[in-house]
Specification:
- The protein has 2 domains: 125 residues, Rossmann fold; 166 residues, 2-Layer Sandwich (Dihydrodipicolinate Reductase, domain 2).
- Strand 5, helix 7 and strand 6 form a beta-alpha-beta unit.
- By secondary structure, it is of the alpha/beta class.
- The strands form 2 sheets. Strands 8-9-7-10-13-12-11 form a 7-stranded mixed beta sheet. It has a 6-stranded parallel beta sheet with strand order 2-1-3-4-6-5.
Length: 346
């Protein structure tokens, strides 16, 4: 049985990790870490765990936790994991970090976009970017995994086969993305109040969202060159879900059949990526509560552009589910262990 500890267990992503591991046949949670709620019963913070979790919240002492857990999930704000991790800790426990601390290989770029000093640059090169469908073999042997961001997960998987095969011009990529409010975390903010969000949609982080360099890096690796793209996220009045619609100019004439065959060749063997039928657009409600990614495309012959679409649950495939998927790979388990969850409707 894999012993798992969670630092940041009372945030939305941490809570989702707990939910998934409760039904995981090969893992158990031994540490519910929360600096804000230390000493309080975990089930008092999340009443969905009433009579299911009897443990109290512990602190964020990663040193002590590494002596009790085989794997540590850090579902914390940027900077915390990097400030706590050490060679000694990594010699005892594997770490899956849900923050951005180890996603970007250029430390200066990370510091510029996140506005903080990186506290553990010595581990950046070692850390494996945990997008399982692309970096599966590297993840298997990793001791430190950078769990991808929610927007980068959906964006990268929607675009990856087309940019990898040179079907689209990397310099023309534009990503329009929409997310439910849980993506902003559980902390109280005026902008996330019901009356502020309900019956409204707005763009935010325009030309400045922190996930931009992460998406650029991953798509840049795919096409073998540095790229710059436009990424605009929007907040929509729903709890969960991300919908990505991306646009790029085609590099040559293509047919729907050719691109559909390409997409299937990349993703048919992937448990959690579902290629939709022709003319079927991804919808967030059909992936809610699950680790699935629904993808599709449409050729716009009038403008000679390709429209690429994807939908995920931002808290599962965009965070906790992907983290558990990474854990499964790191410990030699079947990738879908504990993640065979049917999307919930309605």
């Amino acid at each position: 049985m894999i012993k798992a500890g969670i630092i940041g267990a009372t945030g939305y992503a941490g809570n989702e990790i707990v939910r998934l591991l409760m039904n995981h046949p090969e893992a158990e949670v031994v540490w519910y870490g929360s600096r804000s709620y230390t000493g309080q019963p975990y089930a008092d913070i999340y009443r969905n765990f009433f009579r299911l979790v009897e443990a109290d919240c512990l602190d964020d002492n990663m040193e002590e936790l590494s002596r009790e857990a085989d794997v540590i999930f850090t579902a914390t704000p940027q900077g915390l994991c990097a400030s706590l991790v050490s060679e000694e800790i990594l010699s005892r426990s594997k770490i899956i970090d849900l923050s951005a601390d180890f996603r970007i290989k250029d430390v200066k770029k990370y510091e510029e976009w996140y506005g903080i000093e990186h506290k553990a640059p010595q581990f950046v090169e070692e850390a494996v970017y945990g997008l399982c469908e692309i970096n599966r073999e590297q993840i298997r042997g990793a001791r430190l995994v950078a769990n991808p961001g929610c927007y980068p997960t959906c964006s990268t998987l929607s675009i990856y086969p087309f940019i990898k095969e040179g079907i689209i011009d990397p310099s023309t990529v534009i990503i329009d993305a929409k997310s439910g409010t849980s993506g902003a975390g559980r902390s109280a903010k005026v902008d996330n109040l019901f009356c502020e969000v309900n019956e409204n949609i707005k763009a935010y982080g325009v030309a400045s969202h922190r996930h931009t360099p992460e998406i650029e890096d991953q798509l840049g690796y795919a096409c073998g060159r540095e790229i710059r793209l436009s990424f605009t996220p929007h907040l929509v009045p729903m709890n969960r879900g991300i919908l990505v619609t991306a646009y790029a100019s085609l590099t040559r004439p293509v047919t729907d059949g050719e691109l559909r065959e390409l997409l299937h060749s990349y993703y048919d063997k992937e448990t959690f990526i579902r290629v939709l039928k022709e003319n079927e657009c991804p919808q967030t409600r059909f992936v809610e509560g699950s680790n699935y990614v629904d993808v599709n495309f449409k050729i716009d012959s009038r403008t000679h552009r390709l429209i690429m679409m994807g939908a995920i649950d931002n808290l599962v495939k965009g965070a906790a589910g992907q983290a558990v998927q990474n854990m499964n790979l790191m410990f030699g388990l079947a990738e879908d262990t504990g993640l065979k969850i049917v999307p919930a409707i309605p």
